């Protein structure tokens, strides 16, 4: 007598999930670039066909009013905040048989960075409710047919190299006769590149006749090595105790095209007895650089400890 084969664990894993996951990077759009055809007296195709945004009053300017989102994940740069929306969708259609109930849906996210073998757990926002406690967070959210659970994750990019966003979705699938906990995990890899190259040089200055406190000139070259135009929002030398700095760069906010270099300079002076020497060097502080992209997206970079050799 033939026996009915009992479904194996592998068969259960192959069964399609009732919940799907969609991940979309949150990025500011950019103005679409168009290449309009020049006017020609001879018969030619309609000039509006070459415009990204055809209108009754065509404008031949290279930038159009049309906004464009970056393809896929786009470019990620050190100093920026990487943001994504994570959406878990109940894919069960109303009236589907056998009837299934989806409950306790939870989303967890981790980021794997090049300098650490241990993934970093990422907080998700917004919470399911403003007053939820830890037990309510662990309980998850119930989703009716075609409903979704959406979360936003933010991560400050601080180093170059390959990053992996790992998203895990866990939910309970219940039918009239049984119930089970199901889970799946998806990985999203992207490359983080450097946007700003900083080169510094510090040199001593002769002390004034009225004081024995030392002075230095700290120069820095800021190079835009990214693919987008940026506007420097601020360059500040954050000094340690025993020093003060004066910027010699004016109040303007320069615009750096890809490959452009900006030179900045600071006068560093000792105060209150000066700073401490560390390994034959005297450390002034760190250089903090802020910038904005073409559509206002912010970036921030802080250098390592800057100083000069003690002679």
TrEMBL record:
Domain Trafficking protein particle complex subunit 13 N-terminal, residue spans: 17-192
Trafficking protein particle complex subunit 13 middle domain ranges (all copies): 214-306
Coiled-coil ranges (or none): none
This protein's GO CC annotations: TRAPPIII protein complex
Spans annotated as Disordered: 116-139
Domain of life (superkingdom): Eukaryota
Pfam families: TRAPPC13_M, TRAPPC13_N
Identification of the protein by name: Trafficking protein particle complex subunit
Organism: Lachnellula occidentalis
